[in-house]
Amino acid sequence: MSTLPKVAWIGLGIMGSPMSENLVKAGYDVTGHTLEREKLDRLTAAGGTAAASVAEAVREADVIVTMVPASPQVEAVAYGPDGILENARRGALLIDMSSITPQTSVDLAAAAKEKGIRVLDAPVSGGEAGAIEAVLSIMVGGDQANFDEAKPLFEALGKTIVRCGPHGSGQTVKAANQLIVAVNIQACAEAVVFLEKSGVDLAAALDVLGGGLAGSTVLARKKDNFLKRDFTPGFRIDLHHKDMGIVTDAARTVGAALPVGAVVAQLVASLRAQGDGGLDHSALLRAVERLSGARV
Fold first, then answer.
1. How far does Cα 278 stand from its chain's mean position?
2. What is the pTM of this model?
3. How far apart are CA 157 and CA 169, in angstroms?
4. How many CB atoms are located within 10 Å of the residue 37 CB?
5. Does residue 278 contact residue 238 with C-beta atoms inside 8 Å?
6. Which of 54, 47, 88 has the alpha carbon at shortest distance from 74?
7. pLDDT averaged over consecutive 10-residue blocks of the chain (296 residues)?
8. I need a surface site. Which of 62, 74, 153, 228 has the fewest CB within 10 A?
9. Would you name the residues annotated as active-site residues?
10. What DSSP state is assigned to residue 276?
């Protein structure tokens, strides 16, 4: 019998599926729930167990992980008679790894405390590749003791694992992460269009740029997307649009000016409005191409 905690995993999307499978590989007993039957079949094929509802998944769990798109989905699975808070046992640890507003995390922690359920907000960065390779950055908000308890589980999912402060802090750091990533992708996209219109060998240019101060994880991860115009979603524009809304709203609340971030947020929104919301966020290249007169 495994001495590892029993895990309920809610949300088996682009990130959630490989993350839950990495827990199975690490020896955890994982019971998962999602709305898509094929994702449940994928989990069972990997050695996990499928549950027909949130309530069924969480009832016997020591640790509950949620990995869903946004605040409304977190609230939908957490609250109500069929939700986590009404069906998880007292003393369970709820780890929300979704990217949501900091206030949603604070409110969830307060509501869960009334039910005797502990909470960490623990959003991640690294995209689909980071999830598959278990090298995610995990930024955590919540009590130190709960963080220490969850650390072995986090180590099965990522490499950079940091407690950033009290409830909501992980989400605040994730918002800053998404700001940096979006601005970086936009800069890379503009450079790609500039280089191509100048007649430079793009592959060679990106190689040398990647080796200098212009190099970044974004450029390394997204270089092939730019070169091949392959925008198969690792992280969808729709989700980055949501995240840019979170960071601009949070920045307004604390009185922080984001002049460049605000422009990029509008460019992300524009790309989504043109029907590219389901593409990878490296498709910001398409927006720059349109602005530059290229046929997309």
1. 15
2. 0.91
3. 20
4. 9
5. yes
6. 54
7. 90 97 98 96 97 97 97 97 98 97 96 98 94 97 98 98 98 97 98 97 98 96 96 94 96 96 97 97 97 85
8. 228
9. 174
10. I
